[in-house]
From TrEMBL:
InterPro entries: Glyas_Bleomycin-R_OHBP_Dase (IPR029068), Glyas_Fos-R_dOase_dom (IPR004360), VOC_core (IPR037523)
Organism, scientific name: Cryptosporangium aurantiacum
Pfam hit, one: Glyoxalase
Gene3D superfamilies with a match to the protein in the record: 3.30.720.110, 3.30.720.120
Upper classification of the organism: Bacteria, Bacillati, Actinomycetota, Actinomycetes, Cryptosporangiales
Domain (VOC): residue spans on this chain: 4-123
Origin: domain of life: Bacteria
This protein's name: Uncharacterized conserved protein PhnB, glyoxalase superfamily
């Protein structure tokens, strides 16, 4: 097997709201869309983020109405403090303040209009 691309698909109530949020605050761009569906990418992300409107027949019937609220999508970034300042200036809803874990992971979280958590991470040296 050779993997040529990766994506995460998230069921949400409002596809447009999540799509606009990822484009506005994280620089993703739309590569494909249809009714109840949008695929977003960034050249440096290594994966596409796909939003599907809940209820579509793309999943087994017992999962179609399960929403992605509480799902965490993480991006490793450079200069997290600068990203935090940028997000604050844009008015993004920071729902977990910048935190440094004992093992050196530094992160903050924002939450999109459908409850999907976007976590930005960088690493600090622990000594």
């Amino acid at each position: 097997m050779r993997i040529t691309a990766s994506a995460v698909s998230l069921n949400v109530d409002d596809v447009l709201a999540s799509s606009e949020f990822l484009q506005k605050h994280f620089g993703f761009r739309e590569v494909m869309s249809a009714d109840g569906f949008v695929s977003l990418t960034r050249d440096d992300a290594g994966m596409n983020v796909i939003y599907l409107r809940r209820g579509l027949a793309t999943l087994p019937a017992d999962f179609r109405d399960v929403g992605a609220a509480g799902i965490l999508v993480a991006f490793d970034v450079e200069d997290l403090p600068a990203e935090e300042a940028r997000l604050r200036a844009e008015g993004a809803p920071i729902t977990h303040e910048l935190t440094v874990e004992p093992w050196g992971e530094r992160f903050l979280q924002v939450t999109d209009p459908n409850g999907v958590i976007v976590q930005l991470v960088d690493w600090v040296t622990t000594t």
